[in-house]
């Protein structure tokens, strides 16, 4: 059974919704989540690498599609936007960690069944994340149009125009603020909600409310955790996406342990553990 991360009494706060409590967490727990995620990865390397390979493939298909459509300027924005959808991709990894924690058998098929545990609600949060992804894509296109007078930079001048031109600093700052703000909103609504939907029989609205409440309660620590996720994901992308083969499963497993560290469902009344999917 997976080693659980110890919680101290002072970390537990008042009941939240349906008897689910939100713990007060500390910065040092982020390292413990990564360690627990790495242990799960080592216990199920094949499953982790399969999900990682799917992320690498998806990344390359995305890059090839934007180059084939003559939109290479969208490479960086879409790479960043890819992370907005990552929590949904990680559902199978959450299920893997959940089964390891419960001492249950786990295979790639068991992990894929994670999507069946609460399919309607997981699908609903997926639609929400997709809307954010599409919104970010439109924002990125609008920024390029505004800063480059409607003439999108071609591949041969893309790097120069993006990083070294006269308006590059303003462009990058504006894009970072807008993109970072959007990413933080997505993180707040998904950091707890998606693993909670895998773990418990709750609806998407309840899950999002609890997730946002958890973010507000621990925003300083969770902003730091979001930065850790962004940095590790960027490290995976910078090596031609191949680093995602390891980074994505590591972050997926670790995010499950973050959820378990933040949320206490032991006193839950309405949000019952769902029936097991074979």
TrEMBL record:
Pfam families, per the entry: DUF2189
Transmembrane segments: 46-67, 73-94, 122-148, 168-198, 219-246
Domain of life the protein comes from: Bacteria
InterPro entries: DUF2189
Name of the protein described by the UniProt record: DUF2189 domain-containing protein
Assigned keywords, A-Z: Membrane, Transmembrane, Transmembrane helix
